[in-house]
TrEMBL record:
Residues 11-78 form the Winged helix-turn-helix transcription repressor HrcA DNA-binding domain. Pfam families: HrcA, WHD_HrcA. InterPro entries: GAF-like_dom_sf (IPR029016), HrcA (IPR002571), HrcA_C (IPR021153), WH-like_DNA-bd_sf (IPR036388), WH_DNA-bd_sf (IPR036390), WHTH_HrcA_DNA-bd (IPR005104), WHTH_transcript_rep_HrcA_IDD (IPR023120). GO terms for biological process: negative regulation of DNA-templated transcription. It comes from Pseudooceanicola batsensis (strain ATCC BAA-863 / DSM 15984 / KCTC 12145 / HTCC2597). This is Heat-inducible transcription repressor HrcA. NCBIfam families: hrcA.
Length: 354
């Protein structure tokens, strides 16, 4: 199959317009576009039979497909990629979208985690997709840690950093926890924590547990392990993936198999097993990147598209990413500037706070 950049150069003006209008129609309403519809839209007056011949040629090139017996066509994954790379017209950021995103940053205090949560919600609301925000690790020294029971199967770990930043995470504690074992675990961690970063503390706790294993109550030791796993992440990076707008994708999905693919996608995200890969995707190039269907090794099972952009700190180092995931018929021309603006805004806010 030819490279998409070569194919688009080989198309004549009529073929290119037919292709563009099929894709734009599909992205607008998700339905196949037929020759009769195109006769009303084309710049030049042309018969439905001529358009059908052009569509057949585009199908032969692998750019269009016939999903049903009807004469309508939809773009293939390769066709969408060619459209995005060569024909996509990116609009300016809508004023209402900008104001909606700006307003979320202005709400609340100086907590970066809270800001990123609000950014994710605004991004999901503006795009009607699911938003992904990869928060950076926090490397300030720790001041205090506390474990709080929320029930027999839920507990909260609270991290207070020396710079005033606070993080709260819910986790599943080992069975049989008591208030005294939680206090013992917190006392043990706090005796080691002050003045150390999370990276330092993970290493020191591991060494201390080996040295004092007989002295530490077994339940308290398990509690430390369970709570700390929220940040240690198996020795990987200390980023956190915030996902908002799951309902948008579930509402968008029609067929039962689509719903199942989306459930699989969110199961993957909730297990957070792809966090590092998500950042790697964003780091592979500057600015906004678009992944369509199986091009994206993270979300290929969902049959979805991902629009993602990294954000940087004051030193121009990539520290996280923001993105939108939705069906392949995303309004790319509108979503690209939203993601781009959001990434730049997050980078500026984090740089200002640091």
């Amino acid at each position: 199959m030819n490279d998409t950049s070569n194919i688009i150069e080989e198309l004549n003006d009529r073929s290119r317009e037919v292709f563009r209008r099929v894709v734009e129609g599909y992205l607008t309403n998700g339905e196949p576009v037929g020759s009769r519809t195109l006769t009303r839209l084309m710049n030049e007056k042309v018969s439905a039979a001529t358009i059908r011949n052009v569509m057949q040629d585009l199908e032969y090139l692998g750019l269009l497909d016939s999903p049903h017996i009807s004469a309508g066509r939809v773009p293939t994954q390769q066709g969408l990629r060619m459209f995005v790379d060569g024909l996509l017209e990116v609009s300016d950021l809508d004023v209402a979208d900008r104001e909606k995103i700006d307003a979320t940053v202005g709400n609340g205090g100086g907590d970066v985690g809270g800001m990123l949560d609000r950014i994710g919600s605004a991004l999901s609301g503006a795009t009607q997709g699911a938003s992904l925000v990869l928060a950076p690790k926090h490397e300030a020294p720790i001041k205090h840690i506390e474990f709080v029971s929320l029930g027999h199967d839920r507990a909260l770990v609270v991290l207070v950093f020396a710079d005033g930043h606070v993080e709260n995470r819910i986790f599943t504690p080992p069975p049989g926890q008591t208030p005294s074992s939680m206090r013992e675990a917190a006392n043990f961690v706090n005796a080691l924590a002050e003045g150390r970063t999370l990276s330092d503390l993970s290493r020191v706790i591991g060494e201390e547990i080996k040295l004092r294993r007989q002295e530490i109550d077994a339940l308290a030791r398990e509690l430390i392990d369970s709570g700390w796993a929220e940040w240690d992440d198996g020795g990987a990076r200390h980023e956190r993936l915030i996902v908002r707008g799951r309902a948008n994708l579930l509402e968008e999905a029609g067929a039962e198999e689509d719903l199942e693919r989306i459930r699989i996608l969110f199961d993957d995200l909730e297990r957070k097993r792809d966090i590092v890969e998500f950042l790697d995707l964003a780091e592979e190039g500057d600015g906004v990147r678009i992944f369509i269907g199986s091009e994206n090794k993270l979300f290929s099972l969902s049959g979805s598209s991902l629009v993602v952009s990294p954000y940087m700190n004051a030193d121009r180092k990539i520290i996280g990413a923001v993105g939108v995931i939705g069906p392949t018929r995303l309004n790319y021309g509108r979503i690209v500037p939203i993601v781009d603006y959001t990434a730049q805004l997050v980078g500026r806010m984090i740089a200002d706070r640091s």
